[in-house]
Amino acid sequence: MSAPAQIDPAQLSGLELLKFAMTLKDRPPFIGDLLGMEAETLEHGKVVFSLLTRQEFANPLGSTHGGICATLLDSVMGCAVHTTLEAGVGYSTLELKVNYIRAVPTDGRKLTATGTTIHVGRTTATAEGRVVDDQGRLVAHATTTCVIFR
Which residues does UniProt assign to the signal peptide (predicted)? Predict the structure, then answer.
């Protein structure tokens, strides 16, 4: 009986790499672990992550800090771009523009962020994102520009 084949992450497309990384038991930590993000959808050009708000996310006024939504949005939009890239190609956020629509309590509300690509070119990509609360109300929306490292 032969040993299972080893997977070389450098040979995986962006989508394959994300799917593979989410299944690893001993994967390296990432910002999503700190915030409790859960990957709900990983498709070509589309990513959905969610999290539950908590007291530690509070701003000085007692509602969820805007940085939580900004991090969710940066994550889903960047990962949406990543899903479109071929093996060995990287990216980084160049610009992030967030619009906040409503405050969110820190009482365990589920926030769901969806990121979708708008354009993926040779050196740059753009994407958009939306965060909704557990009642489907828009909380924040954003756009991003990413640089692609080929």
Answer: none
Matching CATH number, 46-149, of 3.40.920.10, 3.20.10.10, 1.20.120.420, 3.10.129.10: 3.10.129.10
**Predicted pLDDT at 3:** 47
- Positions in the chain short of pLDDT 70: 1-5
CA distance 146 to 122: 11
> Is residue 65 packed enough to be buried (19+ CB in 10 Å), middle (13-18) or exposed (0-12)?
middle
Q: Helix 66-82 and helix 14-23: axis angle, to 10°?
A: 120
